[in-house]
Design goal:
139 residues; mainly alpha; two-stranded parallel sheet; 5 helices; 7% strand
């Protein structure tokens, strides 16, 4: 169960606990419908955000399923009054329409080009001195 400091109300904690456990794979299915699950997860995140700003980072969003994208959109729409920052990292793929729709909400997009091989070799040499050359194939 989330500590009382994070979700102070006992009834809220009883509501959130099985749904949060289901989300992170620690419990049986809570048996709730999607709106109930979304509400529980938002309640937990909102409880955290009332204590301190919350940063959520999602990597490889190009592989995200529709449920995750739907939840993030739902969360952002209902959390405009909270100190919540959501960062999603994705590679551009033609199949990313759902992620594109999500990123249209109060967002900033940065397109990063690939790092040139020479620059990558210098970066790796600085981070991992003595890295065998056969581990970084130059083009």
């Amino acid at each position: 169960m989330p500590p009382p400091a994070y979700v102070p109300d006992n009834a809220d904690r009883r509501f959130v606990e099985p749904r949060l456990a289901q989300l992170i794979g620690l419990g049986e299915a809570a048996g709730g419908e999607r709106p109930e699950l979304f509400a529980a997860w938002r309640l937990f995140i909102a409880s955290l955000a009332r204590r301190a700003p919350v940063v959520m980072v999602f990597e490889d969003m190009q592989w995200a399923d529709a449920s995750l994208v739907e939840f993030l959109g739902w969360l952002l729409e209902r959390s405009r009054d909270l100190p919540l920052f959501v960062m999603s990292l994705a590679r551009p793929l033609p199949s990313m329409t759902a992620v594109s729709e999500l990123s249209a909400r109060d967002s900033v997009s940065l397109r990063l080009e690939p790092v040139p091989d020479d620059d990558m070799e210098r970066l790796l040499a600085g981070l991992v001195p003595g890295l065998p050359p056969n581990l970084w194939p130059a083009s």
